[in-house]
Amino acid sequence: MLRVALTGLRANKLRVALTGVAIVVGVAFVTASFVFTDTIEARFERLFSEAARGVDVVVRPVRPEFTTGDPTEIGAFDASVLEIVRAVSGVAKAEGGVSGFAQLVDHDGNPIGGQGPPTLGFAWIDDPDLNPMEIRPGNGRAPLAADEIVVDSATASRHGLALGDEVTVITPQGLGRYRIVGIADFGEEESLAGATVTGFRLDEARRRFGLEGRFSEISVVAEPGVPPADLVAALEAILPDGVEAVTAEQATAEQLAEIADALGFLNVALLAFAGVAVFVGAFLIANTFRIIVAQRTRELALYRTIGATAAQVTRLVLVEAVAVAVVAAAVGIVGGVLLSEGLTTAMDALGFAIPDGPLTLRARTVVVGFAVGTIVTAAAALLPARRAGRIPPVAALRLDAVRPPRRSLRDRAQGGGALAAVGVALLGIGLFAGPPNPLAFVGLGAATLFVGIAVLGPFAVGPLTRALGWPLVRWFGAAGLLARENTRREPRRTAATASALMVGVALVVFVAILAASTKATVRASVLETFGADFTITSANFSAGIPRIVVEELAALPELDVVSAVVFDVAGVGDDTARLVAVDPKTIDGLVDLGTSGEVLARLATTPDGVAVAEPLAEREGVGIGDTITLAFPQLPDFPGRVVGIVESSDLGELVVTRATYDRGYLNRFDSMVLARAAGDLAEARRAVEAVVDPYANLRVQTKDEVVADAERQIDQLLALVTGLLFLAVVVAILGITNTLALSIIERTREIGLLRAVGMLRGQVRRMIRWEAVLIALFGALSGIATGILLGWAVVAALRDQGLRSFAVPTGQLAVLVAVAVIAGIVSAVYPGRRAARLDVLEAIAYE
Amino acid sequence: MTTTATTRIAARLVDATKIYGEGTAAVTALDGVDLAFEGARFTAIMGPSGSGKSTLLHCVAGLDVLTSGEAYLGDTALGSLSDRALTLLRRERVGFVFQAFNLIPTLTAAENILLPLLIARRAPDRAWFDHIVDTLGLGHRLDHRPAELSGGERQRVAAARALVTRPEIVFADEPSGNLDSRSGAELLGFLRRAVDDFGQTIVMVTHDPAAAAYADRVVFLDDGRVVDELEGPTAERILDRMKSLGG
Predict the structure, then answer these.
(1) What average pLDDT does this structure show over A52-58?
(2) CB spacing of A753 vs B104 below 8 angstroms
């Protein structure tokens, strides 16, 4: 039977290849996701071990129980600890260092880095054994004076920085001019994961980061023969509270986990796209096998007449499917390896330097790739295969097509309805009931809903194609009429073919709605919330606004009021809450935090005062005058006095003074400065620009510019996601091509007849084209409807998270419909050409 | 209609030869056939299986191309025409009735009848359409699809489609081959009337003497050659002639 199956495949190379494409795409994404993650892990492990080479033990502050992800918050300890460490027996050498955020400015005045990987500054350690960086011969020397720095070699070469160049560095203390005296590498690597790294002299670094008399880390080399673990134990015994010792190995593992965490979203994204590709592919596979089985009815019935059992015929079809899947999965795995190589290159280009090295392809990845490919294919082909088993032997003997009994329409309506209902229920639970992992519920619910809609699809084919088809009939005569009727003759086939496109389009629409709703929310929120004429923000995710900027702005006569705000996160119970630190004396009217002037006044006068947003206050069960215990990185049990319950705002759930913030956090960068002009707006702006200009990472924006900026960022993300989802659309187009190519084989005689009675080749092509366009439109419209439904549900669920507007991007939907029409036209090119080239005589031969 | 129109030649073959395949596998389907079909007459082509009668029909109808010699429809030589020109010629000047699978299953009877006009995007002559439909007794079946029609009705729809464009010539290939005798007689009677009443030219391939008896003239084909002819045939005379040819 296996040989029979394989012969069948050889005879149908094209449709097999088209079916395989879907599996290839899905498996490629799954493989890429694993290879990419494994590769990054392996390469960073090498990089970090390289960087930590020679260091055996690291002494560092005990990590606060609650951290915000800001390395500054991990803290620092008194410099005297270094002497304690050096005195411990078994310690060969030890050196202390400090680190913080620093923004380098290039020669054109533009900020360097900060859009992804952090911009770090640290104290240069002269002992090469204890310094992760090394200056190779010819690359200069270590900084000897306060105005000398070392930069990492990737940053230097990328931004044209050379030895002897004067550059500006921005830190929480403001601007500084430095001369580059050294360019350093990390062992074999030029970059530490793309971070921009600046090395200062120790005293200068301390001054820049406000860490005078302190260290943030001590690197220790053990005496020969002393195991690091023993040294850790010895150190732990005498280190003061709040300082700990760990092996360098453990510190590396932690760093690795952080990188993996930071890039985890990519892994999730890749797996999500893999899921979409595999899911859409499954529709395509099921449909193709359904048609192949229908066309091979007589052949399959012949096997029955010569003694094959129903189970054997079913198996025959399944074996064919699995054989395709195995080959396609192999291609997909190769494709996935290439894709992950491409991803690494793309990440490099985006500034996330991924260390060089080979790709890591583990046996597990290959196994998963083959498993996904074969299991999905076999599952998708199962129903058509069982249908093949039900073909009666008599079908081989009859001229007219004997088809196995179909399930009744009522069964289909009930089954599809039930699936859709289950899907909606799962979605509802995931979105509104707050289960432990809502994403799984939402994903599964959406998938079930898609299948349900696909099952119900045939019922919509009749009315929809009638409506969509009338212009075709009107404008394109016989070709239009025949195209419309062809989509209606087998509603199941039309609906199944369109299903793949439906899923792809629904996801594109869903993402577009989410983006549009977010944009609308941001617009409304910014316009309602901000009373200031200007906002000053940082383009760098890690380095913010130095405090001196606020002071300089406050001194400008062109400005009426200036107020600085910090956005951060605080711990509340087991959860976190968004925190805003403000100056209560100046903030009123500049930005709406839900606080009234009265609350702000109380905040200004009450020590440890906190204003709490209503939902949070309700959750924690606190009222005015109560105490709410908050966790700040530097104050794990801060007893906040509730001075006001305020309306929920988009900016934060907790409002504290900047004085309170400074006690709880080490960060000294502000997140945003708000200003109101005293008189002429343009004049005020010029004055503000003049102050802010030297700070390359800062930008001055009006409300409208803030909105436009946010919208641009959302659009960029939308474009990326849509681009990836279009892969699903491409797979769907292949599905239409496949179905049409198979249908044309069935309709050979019909096309011959049309040609005989005078249909031109061009008209035949047009007929196929419009049929494809109708199928594509059917898929696109049902996809748009489903996508709007999904988008509406998710937006409604995120209302609590501040997504207040629901917006349908009609322009984008119109574009999508146009894309569907074009997709239909493209998918019909090959089948149309085949149909037009059919030999009339052979087609009408009926002997 | 008077018989004076019979002098017009609707289609003809001049030294027509058609060879399928090459070398040792070559089969000569038509072997130097010279034959003319007069206008407004009903000609039947008879011959045993493999005698080349279908090939002859296909070649003179512009569905197939001769290996040598020439086929003319009216004064148009078909040999030099492109696929496009042949298609337009079939659409505008020729009607077809095949043995089976004459109709597009997704279209109604009316749409099937009007198909050549739909393809040509020409407005139908309503009165002519009604006349044909009436004559063929299809009025009450116009909205039905082929699957809902009987075999006889399907062939009558095919005949209506062949006539609706008022073609110069109608080619019928075993039109009654799949019908029971009553339906077959009805269809052939209608074709006869089309010749008598409308002056339609019809060329029909058949192996059934009873069907051929409806024609004005019978041409006998064997091994790709015209071997005999009969004017004003009856079934008995055809049978006699076939016997003598077979012997």
Answers:
(1) 84
(2) yes
Distance from CA of A480 to the nearest CA of B (A): 10
Residue B24 in domain: no
Nearest to B119 among A489, A750, A759 (CB): A759
Q: B121 and A488: CB-CB below 8 Å?
A: no
Nearest chain B residue to A840 by CA distance is: B63
Q: Does B121 touch chain A (CB under 8 A)?
A: yes
Residue A798 CB partners (closer than 8 Å, separation 6+): none
Distance of CA A64 to the CA centre of its chain: 29
* pLDDT for residue A397: 65
A585 close to A604: Cβ distance less than 8 angstroms = yes
Instruction: Compute the average pLDDT of residues A335-343.
Output: 89
Task: Determine contact: B104 vs chain A, CB below 8 A.
Answer: yes
In A, which residues are within 8 Å of B105 by CB distance? 489, 750
Q: Where residue B43 sits, what CATH number does that domain have?
A: 3.40.50.300
Q: Does B107 touch chain A (CB under 8 A)?
A: yes
Contact B49/A at CB under 8 A: no
Q: Does B118 touch chain A (CB under 8 A)?
A: yes
Establish if B201 touches chain A: CB-CB under 8 angstroms: no
A172-176, A307-311, A324-328, A595-599: least confidently modelled range: A595-599
- A761:B91 CB<8 A: no
What residues of A are in contact with residue B111 (Cβ under 8 Å)?
481
pLDDT per residue over B115-171, tens digit each? 999 888 888 899 999 999 998 989 899 999 998 999 999 999 999 999 999 999 999
Question: pLDDT tens for residues A457-502?
Answer: 888 888 888 888 888 888 888 888 888 988 888 888 888 889 888 9
Report how far residue A638's alpha carbon sits from residue A568's, in angstroms, rounded to the nearest whole number. Answer: 15
**ipTM value of the model?**
0.89
Across the interface, whether the CB atoms of B115 and A757 are under 8 A apart is answered yes
The tens digit of pLDDT for each residue in B92-125 reads: 999 999 888 788 888 999 999 999 998 888 888 9
In this complex, the residue of B90, B106, B121 whose CB is nearest that of residue A757 is B90
B20 is a domain residue: no
Asked whether residue B180 is domain-assigned, the answer is yes
d(CA A781, CA A490): 19
- Token representation of residue A645: 């319950």
3-state secondary structure A576-634: EEEEEEECCCCCCCCECCCCCHHHHHHHHHCCCEEEEEHHHHHHHCCCCCCEEEEEECC
Q: Do A759 and B91 touch (CB under 8 A)?
A: yes
Nearest-CA distance from A758 to chain B in Å?
4
* Residue-wise DSSP of A711-764: HHHHHHHHHHHHHHHHHHHHHHHHHHHHHHHHHHHHTHHHHHHHHHTT--HHHH
Structural domains in chain B (count): 1
**Rounded Cα gap, residues B30 and A817, in angstroms:** 55
Domain limits for position B178: 39-56+81-246
A161 three-class SS: coil
Which residues contact residue A664 at a Cβ distance below 8 angstroms, ignoring those fewer than 6 apart?
A570, A630, A632, A633, A634, A635, A638
Q: Distance between CA A740 and CA A728 in Å, rounded?
A: 19
User: Is pLDDT larger for residue A26 or for residue A657?
Assistant: A657
> Is B99 in Cβ contact with A846 (below 8 Å)?
yes
As a whole number of angstroms, the distance between CA A792 and CA A786 comes to 10
DSSP A562: E
Rounded to whole angstroms, the Cα distance separating A685 from A103 reads 24
* DSSP assignment string, A469-517: HHHHHHHHHHHHHHHHHHHHH-HHHHHHHHHHHHHHHHHHHHHHHHHHH
The per-residue pLDDT of chain B, averaged, comes to 89
Residue A753 to residue B121, Cβ atoms within 8 A: no
Residue A717: CB atoms within 10 A of its CB come to: 13
Which residues are A613's β-sheet partners? A646
